[in-house]
Structure formats: C-alpha cells, structure tokens
Amino acid sequence: MKNLFDLSFTRFVSPSIARIVYILIMVALGIGYIVSVIASFATRNAILGILVMLVIGPLVVLIYLALARIGLESLVAGIRTAENTAELIRIQGGTPPGWAHAGGGAGGPVAPNGWNQSYGQPPTSPPNYPPHYEPPAQ
Known about the structure:
Layout: H1 14-42, H2 46-92, H3 100-104
Helix pairs in contact: 1-2
C-alpha cells in the first residue's frame, strides 16, 4: 500500500492492484448480468427473459471478462518487462531508469561499466559478466 503514495514513481503499483480490479470487474459483471435478467423478465416477455438468461447475458459477460483480463494481463506484462529491463541494467552496472530522479545521481542513462563512452560501443574485451552468463555466439 505504501507504493501507492510513492511520489518518485520508482515502484509500480499496478501488479498488486490488478487482482483487486479484476475481482471488482467480475463482481460488477455478475451484478449487471443479474440485473439484466431481472429486467428482461420484468417486461413480461418470457422468451426474452430466457434468451437473456441463457444466451445473451453469459455471452456478453464472457466477452467483457475476456477483454478485461487481456487488458490487465498486457498492463502487468509491460510492467514486468520494465522491471526485468531495470534489473538487467543494474546487473550490467548501469543506472536503472528512475534512479537519477530518486537521488541516485544526476543526468540521464549511464552506460554499463567498460563501455566506450565516446562511441557508445561495448569494449573489445568482455567485462566481468555475472556468474553463469555465456556471451552470445558471434
């Protein structure tokens, strides 16, 4: 919950809230389904009520639930990609995004240690790689 009040935006709050939002969407769709079934039977048209209860209602609920799930999954996947990228930058010796604004230094991104700063190229001899890291085949 303290991530919700992080004014420097160094931590993501969306993955922890996504579960709650999904549950609220399911509850709202369930209530909407029940209300639509009651409203369709209230028209005194039994065929419409049965059609809404057995075909139209469940189909609409499933479509909206699938769209909500896809949207939340893509949001969480994007955030996890950003977190993993920041971790890879940290492992390489650079400054993860957002650290400069959170008191971690001044300026923009920092190249990993050993990189040629003037040309933005990696060094000719490999730097100290993390354990169990194998450089890609040339």
